[in-house]
Design brief:
Oligomer: heterodimer
Strand content of chain B: 25-35%
Helix content of chain A: 40-55%
Helix content of chain B: 25-40%
Structural class of chain A: alpha+beta
Largest sheet of chain A: 9 strands, mixed
Number of strands of chain B: 10
Number of strands of chain A: 21
CATH topology of chain B: Rossmann fold
Largest interface: A-B, 29 and 32 residues
Distance between the termini of chain B: 19 Å
Strand order of the largest sheet of chain B: 6-7-8-3-9-10
Shape of chain A: flat
Chain lengths: 823, 234
């Protein structure tokens, strides 16, 4: 055993070049496998933390339920496999005046220990409540309160208690009033419950004693996550008001319909498989070469009495030595890259509050080690078997002649062109070509690694390019901030919304802006007003009323030859329209002239506008606001009336349930969108205002794409390096093996110059061949990808010429340099 | 004399090819060698002498016939059993030395012991290296040695396990005359000192005459088998 070990060790030491090349290959592949699996585990764990912090650590939530139903669920605990049930109760609400009109008061919720722990309370300051006189409030309440609320502040509330109605389950009834003084012990980030609550802030206290009449919210954690969905459905049918925390279930590994996790895992698996395959190619090639070279030694060993088992062991031992050296280094490097990568991702984190945390998972490391060991084992088992089969006779006979498969004679004889070509070639070239043809198998694995590297390179660069193209197309380029109100903002009066926008327009860093609002109205069927054609349509005529302010509106006025004062308190009528009845023809709407009045009915109220101008010019650019080059065209199905914002403010659409009425938004082209976004949040402070910062989104997306491409290119470089080590291995071994052949060639008069030429020619020929195959396959796949992408996006086909040239040069130069032979 | 027989070949046939292409490398060869004998097998190129040696060494199989070494019929052993038998009972010396290039002189010599899992007796090995005249070169690698020295290492490797028989295949074929003389001297020395049975294949009659007994093979048949009286060694 000792001698076998020392044989293996000595052999590795003697062939330093190959040993190092192989080790680097193995280290890189172990590194990649470890990197990918650790990143996957870290990502999964980070997602879990993120979900637990934002949504909560529960599988099923039942809201507004009563004591009876809670008892029912508790009874099912064993049967359904419930791990734990956390309970909170709504105590009641108290009036509390703040700067915010929409929030009328504070709702007091009492959480039991488990709920406090699991229900996504992210404390910014202080601690959780420990008795029913302590509360935690949100930072949102702190910033909106009229008084100074901090940890330690006592706040007295007149709590109107609630109870579940006896008749209707979903109905809450008042249950007396109680004056209570609470001490603020903690300040948390705004919870989902508060954000979703239209009318009240939420204060969380400790649930000391359950009061059966109060409404319950329970959250359930299941033992078997795969049962959660089914049990949730059962509860929904029997009790109702059930929601299932799908994202937590997905990231915990339950079978759900959500695919994100699976997609990420599949991608990781695919990369691991590619890396493993390439590594097997490399290691196997290296072993095969090493064994071919030492065939004579194995024969000698056999002839002096080494059994085939001993010889096999010696080769496998080499593999074990490789594993012992390379795997720990690879694992350490892999973890190192994960750490660097994670800090990179966190630096440009896209989603607020999401931080990727590093998770050291021994199981992942173990899996990486096992995959690596299997890779090495698969790679060396066949060469080891080959080595053990070397018969001592082969050594004794000394017949070291090179066995060469005979070329098919017919092929050469029949092919005149080949012959002519062959005649024209110089001797070095023709020898090189013949060598390549006859040693095809030896070059196979090197060729495959070049092909795979180049294919991956082309696919990745194309993908990255397409993602950038799509990103460019995805975001508007004429404006970078889009603000609007959330659809649930109907508690904010329409007039206030416009005024909010007008306040925003006063902020700094705005180059262009446009506020725009939209209503639908009707014109009465009146012969005095309508043209004959319009009247004959025999129905009320719909009219769209747009209102605008800002750069685009001013431009529209300019086009019509008007100025702001011309339209003050007046309207512009676009008199042409298409109706759904006369789809082709544009017809004239009214006979009205400038200075006359038009009566429009908006939401059952009549409004009269004085017409400042009658035109047939559709305000396309006004509708697109700042995006002048948009391909979207205003179709003009309805007649259009354009009114200035001042006039629009008088229209009463308060509490309109029709979302489209009074739908307002504001688009801004800002010179410093991030600063502007900050300012809006700071000065306007309106939680129902939805600010979309396209510039930031684009930036984030580009950063993300860049990060992904760094990883992708890193991956390619590593795979490329593994491929190149494979090439070097093949070439050096090939040269070593053919030393005898070279001696014969030089003995019959080939100069060393000619010899070098032959070798160079050989290596360039086969690398060019491999590169060509790789480029063709890569471009083909890239083209297919282009076809798929271009179904949904407008793209131009991209050929990564520079990358291809770099790849070609590096492959050819490596093979060229590798093909140097010592005298 | 019978129980002193260490090698017995009976009706050895080695046939290549089929039907018209049939060639007999060995044609019904029978002979036996006693313990301590120094036998030379001579014959022209292609006479079958090397084939005979390879079959005796167990690295080649006969078409028919039996070879009994130390009471074991080696034609009945499978490859692995043969390998184990070989490292215990047969020492082989080749024309081209066949040393392992990555092992030094001492390691090459003790390799058969190591393969057998036996710790070589240091004193014995030292003595052997001294006898071979390689004391100074103990730690050298094969490529740092001359041809003669390399062949001496090969002889040491063949001797280290005290095999029943040593097979030498043209051991001087690749050496100059001075080195050749030394090698033959060494072989004779081991024959006398360790009572080593030696079977030497050569085409050089001068070398063959150093042996006690010469067997001549021609076209796969033994044509002459005689003891040499004027042997210098005796």
């Amino acid at each position: 055993m000792k001698v076998i070990y020392s044989l293996a060790k000595k052999n590795l030491k003697q062939n330093k070049k190959r040993t190092i090349a192989t080790s680097i290959g193995i280290i890189f592949s172990v590194m990649l496998i470890c990197f990918i699996s650790t990143l996957l585990v870290s990502f999964q764990s980070s997602m879990l933390t993120y979900i637990k912090e934002t949504i909560g650590n529960y599988h099923i939530m039942v809201v507004n339920t009563n004591a009876e139903e809670v008892e029912l669920i508790k009874n099912k605990k064993e049967q359904a496999g419930i791990q734990s049930i956390a309970i909170s109760q709504t105590i009641g609400a108290a009036d509390y005046e703040t700067k915010r009109d929409s929030k009328l008061g504070i709702q007091v919720e009492a959480y039991d220990d488990l709920a406090l722990q699991n229900r996504a309370i992210k404390l910014l300051e202080g601690r959780l409540p420990e008795n029913k006189n302590e509360i935690v409030i949100s930072d949102f309440l702190v910033s909106n309160a009229n008084e100074n609320l901090t940890v330690g502040t006592k706040i007295t509330l007149n709590v109107e208690k609630v109870k579940v109605s006896d008749k209707y389950k979903d109905l809450l009834e008042p249950d007396g009033e109680e004056k209570a003084t609470y001490t603020i012990v903690g300040i948390s980030k705004q919870t989902n419950e508060e954000a979703e609550n239209q009318r009240a802030y939420i204060a969380i206290t400790k649930l000391e004693k359950i009061e059966e009449q109060r409404p319950y919210i329970i959250t359930i954690l299941m033992n078997n996550i795969n049962n959660a969905d089914a049990f949730g459905n059962v509860l929904q049918e029997t009790i109702g008001n059930v929601s299932v925390n799908d994202s937590l279930l997905m990231w915990q590994g339950a079978q759900t319909e959500l695919m994100d996790k699976k997609q990420i895992e599949l991608l990781g698996l695919a990369i691991i498989i590619v890396v493993t395959c390439i590594s097997i190619l490399l290691i196997r090639n290296s072993f095969r070469m090493s064994i071919l070279e030492r065939k004579k030694d194995f024969g000698t060993l056999a002839s002096i009495g080494a059994t085939s088992k001993q010889i096999k062991k010696s080769v496998i031992l080499e593999g074990i030595i490789y594993a012992c050296i390379s795997i720990p280094i690879g694992i350490i490097l892999g973890i190192g890259i994960v750490l660097i990568g994670i800090s990179g991702i966190n630096a440009i984190s896209v989603e607020k509050g999401f931080t990727l945390q590093f998770v050291f998972s021994p199981i992942t490391i173990l899996v990486s080690v096992i995959i690596s060991i299997i890779t090495i084992y698969i790679s060396c088992i066949k060469p080891a078997k080959d080595a053990s089969k070397v018969a001592p006779m082969e050594v004794i006979r000394q017949n070291q002649e090179i066995y060469i498969k005979q070329l098919k004679h017919g092929k050469i004889k029949d092919n005149k062109k080949y012959k002519e070509k062959n005649d024209k070639r110089k001797i070095e070239e023709s020898l090189a070509v013949k060598n390549l043809k006859r040693n095809r198998k030896k070059y196979l694995s090197a060729t495959i690694s070049i092909v795979i590297s180049i294919v991956l390179l082309i696919i990745t660069t194309s993908t990255v390019n397409y993602i950038f193209q799509i990103t460019d197309e995805m975001y508007p380029n004429k404006y970078n901030i889009d603000t609007s109100f959330y659809s649930d903002a109907f508690d904010i009066p329409y007039k206030e919304k416009i005024e909010t926008f007008e306040q925003i327009s006063q902020l700094d860093n705005i180059e262009k802006y446009s506020i725009y609002t939209f209503f639908t109205g009707k014109i009465k069927r009146d012969r005095n007003v309508l043209t004959n054609e319009a009247y004959n349509l025999n129905c009320d005529i719909n009219i769209s009323i747009y209102s605008a302010e800002g750069t685009a509106f001013n431009k529209y006025l300019e086009e019509l030859g008007l100025n702001y004062f011309d339209v003050l308190n007046k309207a512009i009528l676009v008199n042409n329209f298409k109706t759904s009845y006369t789809s082709v023809e544009e017809i004239q709407l009214t006979n009205l002239k400038e200075g006359e009045k038009i009566q429009v009915n908006i939401r059952d109220k009549d409004y009269t506008f004085e017409i400042a101008k009658v035109t047939d010019k559709y305000p396309e650019k006004l509708l697109q606001t700042l995006d002048e080059n948009s391909s979207m065209k205003m179709t003009g199905i309805n007649a259009v009336l354009i009114i200035p914002m001042e006039v629009a403010k008088t229209i009463d659409v308060e509490n309109s349930k029709i979302v489209i009425d009074g739908m307002t938004n504001m688009r801004i082209n800002s010179s410093n969108p991030n600063k502007l976004e900050e300012d809006i949040e700071k000065y306007i402070n309106e939680p129902k205002l939805n600010i979309i910062n396209y510039s930031k989104m684009k930036e984030d997306r580009e950063n993300m794409t860049n990060l992904i491409s760094i990883f992708a290119y890193g991956l390619i470089i590593i795979i490329g390096v593994i491929g190149l080590t494979n090439i070097i291995n093949t070439i050096t071994t090939n040269i070593n093996e053919r030393k005898g052949e070279f001696k014969i060639l030089s003995s019959i008069g080939m100069t060393s110059k000619q010899l070098k030429k032959m070798l160079r020619y050989e290596s360039i020929l086969y690398s060019i061949k491999a590169v060509l195959i790789g480029v063709i396959i890569g471009l083909l796949i890239a083209f297919i990808m282009y076809l798929i992408f271009s179904n949904s996006y407008e793209l131009t086909f991209y050929i990564p010429i520079i990358q291809i040239i770099i790849a070609c040069i590096s492959v050819i130069s490596v093979t060229y340099m590798g093909a140097r032979v010592k005298k | 004399m019978e129980n002193n027989v260490i090698l017995k070949c009976e009706n050895l046939v080695k046939k290549y090819g089929e039907k018209e292409a049939e060639v007999y490398a060995l044609d019904n060869v029978s002979f036996s060698v006693s313990k301590g004998e120094f036998v030379a097998i001579i014959g022209a190129s292609g006479s079958g002498k090397s084939t005979l040696l390879h079959i005796i060494g167990g690295v080649d199989k006969p078409t028919s016939g039996s070879i009994i070494i130390n009471g074991t019929d080696i034609t009945k052993l499978d490859n692995d059993k043969m390998a184990i038998f070989r490292r215990k009972n047969i020492g082989i010396i080749y024309q081209f030395y066949n040393l392992l290039p990555i092992l030094n002189v001492k390691e090459n010599i003790t390799l058969p012991c190591e393969l057998d899992g036996i710790k070589p007796n240091n004193e014995e090995v030292k003595e052997l290296i001294k006898t071979l005249g390689l004391e100074e070169r103990k730690t050298h690698l094969p490529n740092q040695l001359s041809g003669g020295q390399q062949q001496r290492v090969a002889i040491g490797r063949a001797l280290v396990n005290n095999p029943a028989i040593i097979l030498a295949d043209e051991p001087t074929g690749n050496l100059d005359s001075k080195s050749s003389e030394e090698i033959i001297k060494l072989l004779k020395l081991s024959n006398e000192k360790y009572k080593q049975t030696i079977l030497l294949v050569t085409h050089d009659e001068k070398i063959a005459n150093e042996a006690e007994r010469v067997i001549e093979i021609k076209d796969g048949k033994i044509v002459k088998d005689e003891k040499i009286s004027n042997s210098k060694g005796k």
